[in-house]
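Lab notebook, bench 4. We co-purified these components, and the gel suggests they stay together. Before we commit to crystallization screens, I want a quick structural picture of the whole thing.
Request: model the full complex, all chains together.
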Amino acid sequence: QQQVKQSPQSLIVQKGGISIINCAYENTAFDYFPWYQQFPGKGPALLIAIRPDVSEKKEGRFTISFNKSAKQFSLHIMDSQPGDSATYFCAASINTGNQFYFGTGTSLTVIP
Amino acid sequence: ETGVTQSPTHLIKTRGQQVTLRCSSQSGHNTVSWYQQALGQGPQFIFQYYREEENGRGNFPPRFSGLQFPNYSSELNVNALELDDSALYLCASSSGSVNTEAFFGQGTRLTVV
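Here is the predicted assembly.
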């Protein structure tokens, strides 16, 4: 059973556009929701994370929107750049315990 | 670089063999988690070690086992390898405290033939 569902599977965006990736979860005990970025041949790297006590968190061009009642959260990448081309994973855990449930990933391609 | 190093980077094993993967955690981190990432999928939690004790396990059979050493480095052992064990194995270290980030290594690519 997939605890965290992610969509879309792949995304193509023009340079300067907005990339949006969505995730949904079922377990209401989750209280930490990170987004990871992974380049080929590398391990995932933390991009941005949010806790359910806030509805939005912004760091530079990256924003997480969180809807606790709908059990959904999304990543918005503003002014997308070719260097953002990577696979993005949403995840969820309890108490940031490094026991993450990951989504299935979104392959983002930003075309110049 | 995250300071988490894994070895080896690539490995080819035959079905039925045993394999040991190693992870050196970031300085100051006492918690290591292992994940299996099949091609095109998200990482799946295998188990976690905190101060040398297993501290949680995902839905993996007992032939997946681990160790954590006093310096908090860790090993993942897989016995009786199956073709479906072919994957990228990731370790992630953290300090074990709430509100702290987990740092991933670059992974070990295991191919079972």
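Residues 37 and 43 of chain A are 9 Å apart (CA to CA). Worth comparing against the SEC data before the next meeting. Chain A is about 0% helix and 55% strand.
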